[in-house]
Amino acid sequence: MSDQPNGQRVLIVEDESNIASFVAMYLKKAGFGVSVAQTGEEALARADSDNPAIVLLDLNLPDADGIDVCRQLRQGSDVPILMLTARDDDVDKIIGLEVGADDYLTKPFNPRELVARVKSILRRTVPAQRDLDSATLAHGDLHIDHGRHEVTVAGDEVQLAPKEFDLLWELLDHRGLVLTRDQLLERVWGYTFAGDTRTVDVHVRQLRRKLGDSCPIVTVWGVGYKVGSETKAAQV
Ligand code: CA
Questions:
Q1: What are the φ and ψ backbone dihedral angles of 14, each rounded to 5 degrees?
Q2: Sign (positive or negative) of CA dihedral 156, 224, 50, 188
Q3: Residues 188, 230: contact at Cβ < 8 Å?
Q4: Domain 130-227's class?
Q5: If you measure from the C-alpha of residue 107 to the centroid of ligand 1, how many angstroms do you get, rounded to a whole number?
Q6: Averaged over 98-115, what is the pLDDT?
Q7: Whole-model pTM?
Q8: Where in the chain is the domain with CATH 1.10.10.10?
Q9: Which has more pLDDT, 183 or 24?
Q10: Ligand 1: distance of its center to the CA of 94 in Å?
Q11: 23, exposed or middle or buried, with CB in 10 Å at 0-12, 13-18, 19+?
Q12: How far, in Å, from the CA of 59 to the mean position of ligand 1?
């Protein structure tokens, strides 16, 4: 689970376990972290919890049409999607319906070709990643500049520790969504197991102390934390 030297995770959505494990093996060898989902429902949950850099999506799933899953993924995220299809005819369908897939491969495929496609798609999407350097988020009089690693309240700079900054960014970037302590631990601290979730509570307390009334973090009892969705994201 922690074997992802290049820091990028691939979510494989495939109900045929032999194909999934075969593909997973090649991707791991290429240095990727791998998550596997066998149903559409699991795919949507893992896309949310595992923060994949790219999704490989089988068109024919037991509980859902891959096209619908692709559309649903697209509603909440810009994650690149590579569709896997069993028939050439399906390729026309994917292109014709403009579901938002970035690329497709027809089975049977050469796993080396798959890895090459994944790398190529990720290279194309690097500029989107770079946008983070100039991204800012605002909430009321709170303003966060990701590139400068700077937080201001009504124009006055507030000094945050690196993890406090990352935690605040993660919650603001997912405003409206409740994130559990385990999800925050994994995304901000990189733990891939249920660790000591008090770490999260301690950092939230620090943020509330430093930001005062401008701290947008709300406790959702028994679940985790969230930021309300009343203000919108800004890009500069
Ligand atoms: Ca299938």
A1: -160, 125
A2: positive
A3: no
A4: mainly alpha
A5: 10
A6: 83
A7: 0.53
A8: 130-227
A9: 24
A10: 15
A11: buried
A12: 7
